[in-house]
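Quick one, tokens below:
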């Protein structure tokens, strides 16, 4: 029995092992990127929730000041909210 594998076999094993090492490193990079993205998303969602709360609180202040009206946020124009229309039931039943 030989005490060493053939040179070509050693080179092939070393090549595959090197490629596995590169892939391990890339997988680690992906996990780190995912972690960073999750942290960024969490931060943005916190900011969104804070800004949404601020918006709702200010909308309530405006409601107290102007009543239950519609405000065009592009122009500031105030208009009365549309009144809901009642559906009329059809009492005329077709005779069978």
């Amino acid at each position: 029995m030989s005490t060493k594998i053939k040179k070509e076999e050693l080179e092939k094993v070393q090549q595959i092992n090197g490629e596995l090492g590169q892939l391990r490193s890339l997988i680690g990079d992906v996990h780190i990127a995912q972690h960073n993205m999750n942290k960024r998303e969490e931060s943005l969602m916190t900011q969104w929730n804070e800004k949404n709360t601020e918006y709702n609180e200010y909308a309530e202040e405006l409601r107290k000041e102007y009543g239950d009206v519609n405000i065009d946020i592009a122009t500031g124009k105030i208009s009365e909210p549309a009144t809901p229309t009642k559906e009329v039931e059809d009492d005329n039943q077709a005779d069978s």
